[in-house]
Amino acid sequence: MGPNGEQVGIVRIEDALRLAQEADLDLVEVAPQARPPVARLMDYGKFKYESAQKARESRRNQQLTVIKEQKLRPKIDPHDYETKKGHVSRFLAAGNKVKVTIMFRGREQSRPELGFRLLQRLADDVSELGFIESSPKQDGRNMIMVLAPHKKAKSKASKQAEKAES
Q1: SS3 of 95, please?
Q2: Beta-carbon neighbour count of residue 130 at 10 Å?
Q3: pTM of the predicted model as reported, rounded to 2 decimal places
Q4: Across the chain, how many H-helices and E-strands are there?
């Protein structure tokens, strides 16, 4: 491609380098995977700057996923369960993933179904805020389940925060 974006066609490397030298520009390979590779006559410094800007923009639009953890026991008191459920629902409402861990001790390890039922109950209680990303799995003395928030349109608060930033 020429300096103004026009198509030059398939040219030998020597001829392309000569054209670049005459125009006081650089020969930059913009699509090395293409057959034949696409090269363009342009200022290499400008090309590097624009590609860095694109990379910075894509990093800025990237969303960071945070995983919060909540630990429970199989024989949890009803009030303690409600408190922990409140924490889980707050994390999910904030858009974070939640790793729920049930810790078994002693003879509790022989009754993993208690932990499984507790995790299912918790998932059902917070089903309007999130869904089960990974189902309950026994991991040694612990049983682990990951809940993720539902994908939804941006809330009014996050839209207003974006407007305030720009």
Answers
A1: coil
A2: 22
A3: 0.54
A4: 5, 6
Q: What is the pLDDT of residue 83?
A: 92
> pLDDT at position 156, please?
46
How far, CA to CA in Å, does 80 sit from each of 67, 71, 83, 127? 21, 11, 5, 19
Considering the domain boundaries, does residue 127 fall inside one? Answer: yes
Same-domain status, 113 and 45 = no
Selection from 27, 26, 25 nearest residue 13 by Cα: 27
Indicate whether 82 and 143 sit together in one domain. Answer: yes
CA angle 9, 11, 12 (to 5 degrees): 165
45, pLDDT greater than 50: yes
The closest alpha carbon to 126, from 100, 106, 103, 102, belongs to 100
- CATH code at position 143: 3.30.110.10
Task: Give the CATH number, domain containing residue 29.
Answer: 3.10.20.80
Handedness of CA 64, 86, 115, 73 (dihedral sign): positive
CA–CA distance, 130 with 13 (Å, rounded to integer): 57
Indicate whether 133 belongs to any domain: yes
Residues 76-125 have pLDDT tens digits of: 888 999 999 999 888 888 888 899 999 988 888 888 888 888 888 888 88
Model pLDDT for residues 49-85, shown as the tens digit of each residue: 888 888 888 877 777 777 888 898 888 888 999 999 9
